[in-house]
Structures are given as structure tokens and as C-alpha cells.
Amino acid sequence: MFYPSFFYRKPSRAVLLAASCLSVSALQAQEKQNVLFIVVDDLRPELGCYGSDVAITPHLDKLAEQSVVFQKAYCNVPVSGASRSSLLTGVYPDIVEGRFVDAETRSEKDLPGVVTLPLAFKNAGYYTLSLGKVFHHFDDRTDSWSESPWIVSPASGDWALYNKWNVWKTEIPEAELHPQSHRGPYCEAADVPDSCYEDNQIARKAVAELNRLKEMDRPFFLAVGFRKPHLPFIAPKKYWDLYRREDIKIADNRYRPEGLSEQVQGSREIFQYTRVTDTSAEDFHREARHAYYACVSFVDAQIGLVLDELERLGLADNTVVVLLGDHGWHLGEHDFWGKHTLLQQATHAPLMVRCPDVASGQSRSIVEFVDIYPSLCEVCGITLPEHLQGRSFLPVLKNPEAKHRDCAFIQWGKGVNVVTPEFSYAEWYDKSQSRVVDEALFDHRRDPQENRNAAGEKKYQKLIKRFKDFIGRKRQEIHLR
Predict the structure, then answer these.
(1) What is the pTM of this model?
(2) What is the rounded CA–CA span in Å between residue 336 and residue 334?
(3) What pLDDT, on the 0 to 100 scale, is given for residue 222?
């Protein structure tokens, strides 16, 4: 049951520092451990290690066998720019203050001067590198890195150029591009090698950098950001051929949840691409899922190149590996495609952490993405900056059965969401952010797919009151001004 009075009782700084000191002796096989930080764009927990019987992800599944896999990890905001800024600063979004609220978020604008996760490692003597998409904008907080962030081409930092020049490897006539966005088809299965696509170039750059970093006389923090399975769903044909479209199951709840607030409209992102007509049609659902799975298998192969090189170089025994998707993604559930909701498909995301000399396992405890920053610092014996709002899940890395949080706190648009193991409660506000205009409660014990808003039922009113009280306190706690 939900007990909000003590959910987020923050431990004292002295307690956190003491835990940090203990973590060094408990986890570090050598004086300082390296960190390989892998973030994947729009990757929902549609992986073999998360129970998917469709997705073919052998490399991620192998990593999961050696890691603590967090089965209930949640982003704090379901959009890339804001999610990355939040987790890389260890600070919650704030829809009242306007901090970390949308795709175009820049952490240097919303929270200038704060010590980012990679900067904390850099200040501790680590050599820090950024390859691919780590921060949403490659030129955001460049002081975090020992070298300028590396991207495949300048087009990667400009959406208009990226979508027109750096995505599709087949020639697309201007007439076939979207008239407003100038983006092409939402999916593509070109019979070309992996090297034609950006993520393979990112993987090969990471392989080269690992070889260089090995020769340095200092620990490293290597952040690698892969773009797939972000739209457009493009991957070499061989990854499409791993799947039989007729065997792919589609969502059985392709309808709007009963009683859901009209503020929840779903993402419009997919409609910025061509070949998107009737998204409610079964054929579209099957093709889009096929395309998404192909991209997941493609990026799995690229991650495998990096992990295999880490092993070949003899670095795996002294490197912490973190892998996450920056948020979830609707694959036709409720006829939604994309992120941008407070439903579980958009907020539930994969997270796994492999630490040398620490047991692997499955954790069912709730963790939030703001917890990643303090956790990595404690694992590597780095003093925690004072500004952090997350909580280290180091005890879970030591014992996957340990409990971490009772709930996750998520924000999007004009709404906030609290997720517990049994319930998901959301409320939406007016323009002043002061008055609740709508709410939703999903009882996951009887409605795990979130098909029916139960907020109006009498038996839940005391529970909803406790959620509301908790949200009020939490919103005050995360407000920095």
C-alpha cells in the first residue's frame, strides 16, 4: 500500500558520504573503476531480458545476465532532452519553474553552473568522453568533457539537417518529403551494410576510443549515445529479416483508456514523417512494430561491438557498465505512438548496471533516473555534490532484493504522476499550475494495461487524498527557488 509520509525522507549528507566510503571498499577491485555509460534513444523495455518473447537482443541479454537489471526503472520526464538533462544533473524536472520540461531543454540554460555527472568524474581525475547523442544537444555543457563531444557530422546537432541529410541512405526526392518537416518515410529497410548508418559509426568510434583510453594512465568515463530505435525506424534489411511480420503480436488495447483526461493526446512526432496514414489500422501497427524491433536488434548489434571490445582489451573487469533507455515508447497501446504521456509505456524504461565483483540479478524495486548520478558516484568513490536530488541505489547493486524506493515521481506537460508497485496516479493542472483540473488512477492489480481510469470510484478516495498530499510536498521539495 501507499505510505507517502516517509517515501522520500532524504538521508543526511553525512550518511550519504559514509555510504560512499563504504562503497569504495565493497565494490572497487582496483583503485579507480572506469565507467562505460551507454544511453539509447527511445528504447523501451522491449528486450529479451525484460521478458519480451519477440525482440531479438542477444548482446543486451548477455549484459543483463552479468548486471543488476532494474525491472521497475522510471524516467522523471518522458522526453529526450529533458530526461537527459535531469539524469545527467541529478535534479528533478519542475513544471512550475519550467526546468527540464521539453525536448529542446538545455541543462546549461535551465540549471547553469551545476556539476553534471560527467563533470563530477572529470573533477575527480577521470578522462571523460562523449560520443554520439549523450546530452540532447551535443554542445550542451561541453565543460563536462575532457575533449569536445564527438558526433558523426555537424548535421547531427541540427534537427533540420539531421533529418534531411543524415538519416536516409536511399535517395529521396523532395516531393516525397513531408511538406512541413522535410522528413522522409517513418521506416526503411535498405539492403545496405551497418556502416551506412550513424549508430555503427558511433560504435566503431567507441571501439577506437577504448583502445586509446586503455593506454592512458588514468581512469575514464566514456559516454556513448545511440540514436536508434528513435524515429525514423531505419535499419539494414538483415535486421528486418530476423522477424516474420505475420508472427508479430500487436497491442490488444488499441483504444483510448476509459475516462482518460483530454490533456493526454499522445505524441505527434510520428506524423512528422511520410507514409504515416491510418495509425489505427492493424497493418500499420504490425509494420511499425516490425520496424521498431528491427531497429532494436540493429542497435543491440552495435552495443555488442563495444562490449566485445571492452572484453577483448581486458577492461571489463575494472569497468562499470551502465545501459539505459532515456524513456519509454508507446507501440500502439491506446493507439499512441511515441513518448509524451504519463502512461507507463512512456515512463517505464530499461536500466541495467554491471559492476565488477558484484552479483547480478533482477531488482523489482522502483528506481528513478535521478538516482543514477549519486549511484555511480558512490560506486566509484566520488564525493556527492550537494545539489543532488536523487538517492543512490548502491544497496540494490549489492543485493538486488533490497528495497530502494516506494514510488517514482514523474512530470510531463501540465501533469505529474506517482507510480507505486500497485498504482499509478496522475493529476493535471490549469495554466497557473495551481488548480487540479483532471486526474487518473490506474489500479495495476486489476488493470495492468491502464485501460480504465478508476479515480472516480469511492473506494479509492482516501488513497487519492494521500497521493495528493504527497505530490504537494514533493513539488515543494524539488523547487529550487
Answers:
(1) 0.92
(2) 5
(3) 99
User: Checking DSSP bridges between strand 233-234 and strand 351-354, what pairing results, if any?
Assistant: unpaired
pLDDT in the model for residue 21: 42
Amino acid, res. 286:
R
Q: What is the CATH number of the domain that holds 19?
A: 3.40.720.10
Nearest 10 degrees: Cα torsion 300, 306, 311, 312: 120
The number of angstroms, rounded, from the C-alpha of 316 to the middle of its chain's C-alpha atoms is 23
Place of cell 509494420: 287
Please give the pLDDT value at position 432.
84
Joined together, the cell numbers standing for residue 374 give 549519486
User: For position 228, what pLDDT does the model report?
Assistant: 96
Residue 183 CB neighbour total at 10 angstroms:
22
Which residue ranges of the chain lie beneath pLDDT 70?
Answer: 1-30, 153-171, 481
Distances (CA, A) of 308 to 149, 195, 324, 446: 23, 18, 18, 43
In a domain, 6, yes or no: no
In a domain, 410, yes or no: no
Single-letter residue type at 476: Q
Domain extent, residue 124, equals: 13-405
Give the CA angle between residues 249, 254, 257 to the nearest 5°: 140
| Residue 209 covered by a domain | yes
Number of domains in the chain: 1
Q: Is 204 exposed, middle or buried (0-12, 13-18, 19+ CB in 10 A)?
A: middle
Angle at 146 between CA 141 and CA 152, to 5 degrees: 75
Among the listed residues 94, 220, 209, 84, the one whose alpha carbon sits nearest the alpha carbon of residue 141: 84
Residues composing the chain: 481
Q: What is the pLDDT of residue 448?
A: 97
Residue 54 falls inside a structural domain:
yes
Strand 220-226 to 408-412 pairing: unpaired
- Distance of alpha carbon 471 from alpha carbon 417, whole angstroms: 9
User: What integer pLDDT is reported at residue 29 of this predicted model?
Assistant: 38
